[in-house]
Amino acid sequence: MDTYSIALYVHLLALLAAIAAASLMHFAEARRFAATTRLEVLPWLGLAKSVSRVFPLSLLVLFASGAYLVHKIWTWDTGWVQAGIVGVVVLFASGIVIGKRSAAFAKALVASPDGPLSPELRAKNHDRIVSALSWMNTGIALGVVFVMVYKHALAFSLVAMAIGAGAGIVVSLVVDRSPAAESAPALSPE
Question: Which pLDDT does position 181 carry in this prediction?
Answer without folding.
Answer: 47
